[in-house]
Every structure is written in C-alpha cells, then in structure tokens.
Design goal:
transmembrane, single chain, 3 domains, signaling receptor binding, IgSF_BTN/MOG, 332 residues, Immunoglobulin-like, Ig_sub, 3 helices, alpha+beta
Length: 332
C-alpha cells in the first residue's frame, strides 16, 4: 500500500522533471485509491459496551415488541456474533446470529418464526424484535455480542400487560355487627400484579381496615381480592378499582346499604325473622280475604232489605200478601 504522502511526492517530482506525462500520474492515483481499504470495512473495535433500557420494556399480549440493545461506540456489528437468550437457557437461545446470518439451530422452538434483528446491524443496533407476544414471553432476556477479542452482555426485562375482568363486589354481615358490613372485591386474569384501590362516593381513597390478596394461576395470570369493613349509609357507595396504569384499569361500584337488611331483631335469629315475616304476610292476606267476604255479605244484606221494602210497597198497593224470605247467593 502506498501512503497518500508518497503519492503526492511522486506526482510533484514528475511534474518538476517533465519526463512523465500527466496521465501516468492520474493512473497511479486511481490504482492507489482502489487498493486503499474503506474505513467502514476496517476491523471491529477491540473493546465495546452495550446500551440497554434502564427499566423494563412493556407490551400488550398479542402485539410485537423490540428489546433494545446498542453496541457502543457505533460500528458495523455484522461480523460479530449476536446471541439473545433467556437468563437460564444460554444453550437454547431465542435467536443466534453468527457468520453473517441467523442460525436455524440451536434455538428455542417456542420462538422460531417470531424473532428477528431489525435495528440495523451496520449501525451497531442488535435489538431483538419479538412478534405475537404471549404471557409466557415475559421475563429477563440477555443480549450478548461477541467478537474475536472481546464480548459483552446486558439484560432487558420484558413485562406483558393483560387487563383482567371487571371487579365483582359482594357484601356480607361483619362479625360483631355494630352497623358494619364486610365488602369484598374480586378481579381475575391480570399481568403483571395490579394495584387495587377502594374509594368512597367523594373519590377519596380508603386505606383503613382493608386486606389485599394476590394469587397466580398456572398461566401466570394474577387474581386479586380485597375485603373492607365499612359502616354504610343510605347515600354512600363504594368503588373498587383494579389497575396496571391509568389507561388499563377496571372499576366496580356497590351501594352496601341495599344488602344490609337486619339479620336479628331483638335477639331473634335471621331464619326466625324470615319465617315471622312470611307468616305476617300470610296473615295480612287472610285478613284481607275475610274483610272482602264480610263486605260482600253486608252489601248483599243491604240489597235484600231494599228489595223487601220495594216488594211490600208493591204488594200493599195491589192488596196482596207480602212475599216471604229473601235469599242471598254468594258466589266464589
């Protein structure tokens, strides 16, 4: 390889002597230009670092997501080896790029056909794109880049957001009574673990006397439940809100006083109170029926008396003997 300084000297010397045509100098310059390597094709940096997001990367179930990973300083990463793998599965990676192409094996079969490198490796971007995300895809991913002299790795954490069901609220009698009820809120199918909040009719958060329980199903979805001791009034309602963010939330409301019919009256049990209430209603029905019968009898008697009077008047005028008894027929 001829340095640029040497080229300049040759051309200058030839110009002074006048023994060589200018075309020869130009040919030499073209030849040297073709043999000098392009800077972009120079060997990769001896050392480098990886830049990844500080916090977790979030996405929705069923969508696509990019897990960012950038080589620093910027240079062409195509000659390098790029391996993306789950934190505990190095030998069965999510994606393996080697020898200038993505390798078919060994890779985790769960990710086959769903992953790619779309960041632009010629600019040092080795980000992983994952399509058709499921809840099982959440967790830690390791980005490892290796050259002949050096390697570096960094972790990216993926969370998959799933909005659960509408909260279901119920009311039960609180132990010890005292005008309090136990209000329960339940919502299922969340990812990750959501936040549950109780609020009153004024929108004020209720923090006292509440418990929250989270459980996970085999698919990793979270069910959240909470119960709250509350002394309701006729104008109060309660709201239970379950949320992952302001945009991803569910809310249920209830008027507790509707469900707070007395369970004991002067020491009488709930069952006895219900039986008494039923008997009272039956008694009212029977009394109403008897009153109806008596009313019908009275109306019949009055009609009979009126008819007798009219008959007697008619018979007297005709000189006939008054008729006998009047019979009342009551149907039904």
């Amino acid at each position: 390889m001829i340095p640029k300084v040497r080229i300049h000297l040759i051309c200058t010397t030839v110009g002074h002597r006048g023994t060589m045509h200018l075309g020869l100098c130009l040919r030499v310059l073209i030849l040297v230009a073709l043999t000098v390597p392009i800077r972009a094709a120079q060997p990769a940096q001896e050392t480098f670092t990886l830049t990844v997001p500080d916090g977790p990367t979030s996405t929705l179930s069923g969508s696509s997501v990019s897990l960012l990973c950038q080589v620093s300083p910027l240079f062409n990463a195509e000659p390098l080896e790029v391996r993306w793998y789950r934190s505990s599965n190095f030998h069965s990676p999510v994606l393996l790029y080697k020898d200038h192409k993505i390798q078919e094996a060994p890779v985790d079969p769960r990710y086959r056909g769903r992953v790619s490198l779309t960041g632009g490796m010629e600019r040092g971007n080795v980000s992983l794109t994952l399509e058709r995300v499921t809840v099982e895809d959440r967790g830690e991913y390791v980005c490892q880049v290796t050259s002949k002299q050096w390697y570096e790795k960094a972790s990216v954490f993926l969370t998959v957001n799933v909005t659960g069901s509408e909260p279901v609220l119920s009311v039960a009698e609180a132990r010890g009574g005292g005008g309090q009820v136990n209000v329960t809120c339940l919502s299922e199918g969340w990812s990750p673990q959501p936040k549950l909040t109780w609020r009153n009719k004024d929108g004020t958060e209720i923090r006292n006397e509440q418990e929250v329980l989270n459980t996970s199903d085999p698919q990793g979805l979270v069910s959240v439940s909470s119960w709250l001791l509350y002394a309701p009034s006729y104008s109060d309602w309660l709201a239970c809100t379950v949320s992952l963010s302001e945009e991803m939330k569910r809310e249920g409301r209830i008027l507790p006083h509707i469900y707070t019919a007395p369970t004991a009256v002067h020491g009488v049990s709930k069952e006895a109170y219900i039986v008494t209430l039923v008997l009272l209603i039956l008694s009212l029905v029977i009394i109403c029926a008897l009153c109806s019968v008596i009313l019908w009898k009275r109306r019949g008697s009055m009609w009979c008396s009126s008819r007798k009077s009219r008959n007697r008047s008619d018979q007297t005028e005709r000189g006939q003997r008054p008729a006998g008894n009047c019979f009342i027929l009551i149907s039904g």
